[in-house]
Amino acid sequence: MTRPTTSLHGLEVDAEFATFIADRVLPGTGVAPDAFWQGYAALLDNFGAENRALLDRRAELQARIDAWHKGRGNQPWDAAAYRAFLTEIGYLTPEPAPFTIDNGSVDPEIATLAGPQLVVPVSNARFALNAANARWGSLYDALYGSDVMGPVPSGGFDAARRDAVVARAAEVLDQALPLLAGSHAGVEAYGADDQGLVATVAGQPVRLADPDAYVGTRVDGEDTAYVLVHNGLHVELVINPGHPIGAASASGLRDVVMEAALSAIQDCEDSVAAVDAPDKIGVYANWLGLMRGDLEESFDKGGKTMTRRLNPDRAVTRPDGTTVTLQGRALLLVRNVGHLMTTEVIRKDGQPTPEGLMDAMVTVACAMHDLTKTDGPRNSRAGAVYVVKPKMHGPDEAAFADRVFAHVEAVLGLPANTVKLGLMDEERRTSANLAACIHALRHRLFFINTGFLDRTGDEIHTSMQAGAFLGRDAMKTAPWLAAYEDRNVLIGLAAGLKGRAQIGKGMWAKPDALAEMLEAKIGHPKSGASTAWVPSPTAATLHALHYHVVDVAARQDELEGRPIPDLDLLLTPALAEAPLPEDKVARELDNSAQGILGYVVRWVDQGIGCSKVPDIDDVQLMEDRATCRISAQYLANWLAHGVVSTERVEEALRRMAAKVDAQNAGDPAYRPMAPGFDGPAFLAARDLVLTGADQPSGYTEPALHARRAEAKALQAR
Ligand SMILES: CC(=O)SCCNC(=O)CCNC(=O)[C@H](O)C(C)(C)COP(=O)(O)OP(=O)(O)OC[C@H]1O[C@@H](n2cnc3c(N)ncnc32)[C@H](O)[C@@H]1OP(=O)(O)O
Ligand SMILES: O=CC(=O)O
Ligand SMILES: [Mg+2]
Q: In what residue span(s) does the Malate synthase C-terminal domain sit (predicted)?
């Protein structure tokens, strides 16, 4: 169905979108619609052709790499020859001379504090608000409601579990905020005087081992919270003897509230399905509401209607009677799409235009509402806009992004480098040239982050023709992956990110396996990362505990200057040296097929960009476009090397489609894929695998967008 358009400065703009910009985004920013669209037309004039040329360069390099591998036949891996070849074709670029980033004014959550980073699809207002409010999380709820204390209870209140939770929380306090004597488990009363916190243990007053850890007191209704701080993260001891949990404790402690998601990425990219003007308006409208501070969402929960809004800041009274205000919300960052896709929302010369350029203009324009606020809670007190830029390949693309945002700032009348960029290190050409990429963004870089999921997909795609890749488990311990993670931290430290920008690690993709996360994810701060991604507020609260155990700044000091793992390690693909065992192939084939279908069917038919999908062992996995890219690229690679045949893949897809249908039987909105196997969802999954070797960088976006548009058209009939 053709939608009405408006002609603006030579652009054909979706009419509803143009109205959204004029009536909702721009009022209050001081930018007139005419100036906006004139600037937009200039943006396309200046950068449209270059954007296409950068994509052509990706394709050219990939074709040369494919040809090189094919030309080598079965010769053994030759790291020196490969590196020389990559240098010759310009895949590897010269290293910059030593430098330190100079990113201007950024917030403490970016520069100095270390803690969890929550990611959320911004298209879902209920979740997006929840993510913003996940700055503070109940430790009691996170322990009680997750698998950390054993299987999640399904029945009524479990008093034994409550006692175990209370004991575990006391252990956390003893580790992070110990008393001079005794344990928090034995506290009979908490109080405060002008010297700080006073706990009563065995009838005696006991102070904190570190008296400076006491910040002050916060009263909220019946609750009195004693606010403490450790490693820069606050912890509240919430006292309320009248509360059922507080009543069960001698001290009246009813909760331990952790400062958790220091920052949250509101995602316009891999966790959302936004393919047309209404979708993009939905995404931008939520981001706008967050930046204006007035987003709200009402929904039914437990039979009651709830309305969710952004939480206020928290006022704490210090012992000297002065007030200190703590941020009530996570610092919000926005992830734009990458350079690849184009959008029909804005056309020029009859052609769709780069979606990344639209995200750049519109998300920054929305964020101006935060920058221009004169009262009420602010997002960035440093006056910055934080844009996460994903899927960039190498320094030229990073430099391109830098110039695009400089143009956006000029059009919107913002001081240079107001927009800070987060560099996702998630494509191989970026990892291999990381220092040069950071250098290209040095005046606005606010993070580097190892997006290991996309990175794994790109690893397979780049070396698609080199041979068959090892299976998933072996990939997790492959030398390239360790080199990638370690190099990222060390290169970041060498570029002076400590104290100036975040060094981030990737997503915990098993949202329900939080006991396992608690064991494993401490590895992120230990590796020198000042933040790491979590999929939910509960995971943020639990991951916060790691930053009380590890002092990241001290860890970064230890790591700085250590030798950077050799580039050859990063560049050596994890190929199977012998035929893969048949049982492993069969299992991984089914697993990948199930994961792809389980994700794609909700994306294409229902527009859900991020889902929990059970794997073959019934472990719920977070699936987004990056995890889908991995599965599709695995199968495409095995197809390319005869590990599996097309017929076998088709059979597995059909069999797994029936299984996914059964898994979704309880969803009234679900449309089964079997027995026809001819709907857009099934065909999207099939496209992703069978054409995976030919998709640009192995991305899933082109197939998903096309099939979602098809499904929408069918549904509109
Ligand atoms: C490779 C990459 O790019 S990773 C980055 C992209 N991935 C993400 O952003 C993952 C974000 N996470 C999610 O979308 C979800 O957690 C999923 C899809 C994994 C699971 O969703 P669900 O099955 O609905 O979660 P579940 O039922 O366990 O929990 C729902 C509750 O948790 C909250 N919640 C879950 N995830 C989030 C989140 N990321 N942010 C805020 N709140 C969240 C919901 O608001 C809801 O609480 P409410 O009822 O009070 O509103
Ligand atoms: O975006 C994150 C990733 O792992 O990919
Ligand atoms: Mg990614």
A: 586-673
